[in-house]
Design brief:
It is built from no helices and 12 strands. With about 240 residues, it is mainly β.
């Protein structure tokens, strides 16, 4: 479960309250080569301030159901590489009717490869990942070409039961079928922290700075977002 808050109140409709569930089934998790499948589901509410005088008025926004496969190979002590592929179907409540160009309901495909070194050092535990995403929305305005992205992140083990992280993410998207062919270059910087409050409970917090550069002014923006969440693990 997570919620985010935009410091720019003009972007309040970019605030969401999300409920997420994931299931991973892994074969040989302690062997050098492990692999498995995952299933995930999400239900998201959006802050719809346009219909209320209240600063917080959430309504159903979308639901998602997806899954995929993954593999991880140990290269050396504390070093691993891996890959994963995924599919996610999304349904937007209050979406445009079928056949309308602005309809966002559809599905997405992702592929990701990563290299990770995590010896448990206080300051240096990096991960590098490359990915490819494709948005197959029903409407042409939100149907993208395959989009390449890269993520650089690092974990810090500074305090017992706390993990701190910093990451930089970049993705380039093209929407060639839109009424005005659209290009977007999205750069996101994140500072995050997790606290293991109990055996199965984790508290999460994050602050993100987002810059989306686009040739269409409606999609050109800056955002600073604060997020918080709670996670519960069954195993």
């Amino acid at each position: 479960m997570s919620v985010n808050y935009n410091l720019d109140r003009d972007a309040a409709e970019g605030e969401f309250f999300s409920f997420l569930a994931s299931l991973y089934v892994t074969r040989s998790p302690l062997d050098p080569l492990s692999y498995g499948v995952k299933l995930d589901a999400a239900y998201t509410l959006q802050n719809d301030v346009s219909t209320s005088n209240s600063p917080f008025q959430y309504r159903a926004f979308n639901s998602q159901l997806g899954g995929g496969g993954y593999a991880r190979f140990g290269l050396a002590p504390h070093m691993a590489a891996g890959a994963e592929v995924g599919y996610a179907g999304r349904s937007y409540f209050g979406d445009a009717a079928p056949g309308v160009a602005s309809r966002r309901t559809g599905h997405s495909l992702t592929a990701r490869a990563f290299w990770q070194y995590d010896p448990g050092n206080r300051l240096l535990n990096p991960t590098v990942s490359l990915r490819l995403e494709k948005e197959n929305a029903d409407g042409s305005e939100f149907r993208s070409a395959p989009s390449p992205g890269v993520n650089l992140s690092n974990l810090f083990y500074l305090l017992e039961d706390f993990r701190f992280s910093v990451s930089v993410d970049f993705i380039r998207k093209q929407f060639d079928e839109a009424s005005t062919a659209r290009r977007e270059n999205k750069l996101t910087g994140r500072l995050g922290a997790t606290y293991r409050a109990a055996k199965r409970w984790t508290i999460l917090g994050e602050i993100s700075s987002i810059r989306n550069l686009s040739n269409v002014s409606t999609f050109d923006y800056r955002q600073t977002v604060i997020s918080a969440g709670v996670s519960y693990s069954l195993f």
